[in-house]
Amino acid sequence: MKDMLPTADIQNQIIDAFTFRHACKVFDPDAKIPEDQFATILEAARLSPSSFGMEPWQLLILDSPDKRELFRDFTWGANGAANGSEGQLRTASHFGIFLAHTGATMKYDAPYINTHLKEVKDLPEEVIAFYDTAYRKFQEQDFGLLTSEQIAEWSARQVYIALGNMMTSAALMGIDSCPIEGFELAPAQAVLQEHFGVDPAEYKPAVMVAFGYRAADPVHPKTRRPLDMIIRRV
Ligand SMILES: Cc1cc2nc3c(=O)[nH]c(=O)nc-3n(C[C@H](O)[C@H](O)[C@H](O)COP(=O)(O)O)c2cc1C
Question: In what order do the strands lie in the sheet with 176-180?
């Protein structure tokens, strides 16, 4: 396997994609991502890893412009208020909201866990029993995920893996993106409940994400700390 890897080309493609990706502020509103390419981006999310394989999130895609408008007032990180534009909300080809599962479904003794292990992961009873013990210890002792809120935060950490994979996959296809945490939680939860039936006891909006094609090149060049400031090898 190792000998088969054509590394140089792939290395270049990876670095090119990461260099190309930036937090796009305004997309070309007329440029739509072909659905088969968006399906690949969604598949990158679906195939992403998650702790214990619990897949503790859902992604709500706001296809309709009217639905996006519901979030406009309090989504300051994507409504263009910061730069006097229409923002990502109105210009993105595709726009989604990641919903992190809370303790209602992800606590070790929630019925959902057993259903997931049985029906999705297709595990035999003895492996499920092992999982149950290990998952309970993980939540109660190892990581101290004792409240529904703490479990939602753990779920959100799994969300960010899928989010990153989506944005990188998009960049590899020349598609721009922006992760968005710039929103007020309480009104977002209220809109999600009222218009989409998302119960805040079951799901917590973690992060939004926009995809499309940049309207213009980024104003600022990418800045990052040098490698020796972030990596310590011993
Ligand atoms: C979790 C997360 C949340 C972010 N929220 C917003 C946001 O609400 N609005 C926005 O325009 N950019 C947002 N950004 C973009 C960051 O500001 C940006 O990634 C960072 O400044 C680095 O720039 P670059 O992504 O262009 O390399 C967010 C980034 C991350 C990872």
Answer: 57-61, 94-101, 203-212, 176-180
How many Å apart are CA 219 and CA 70, to the nearest integer? 29
107 close to ligand 1 (CB < 6 Angstrom): no
Structural domains of the chain, with CATH: 26-230 (3.40.109.10)
CA of residue 177 to ligand 1 center, whole Å = 10
For the stretch 140-163, pLDDT in tens is 999 999 999 999 999 999 999 999
CA dist., res. 106 & res. 197, Å (int): 19
Rounded Cα distance, 136 and 189, in Å:
28
pTM score over 0.90 = yes
Tokens of 85: 């534009």
Cα–Cα distance for residue pair 234/217, rounded to 1 Å: 39
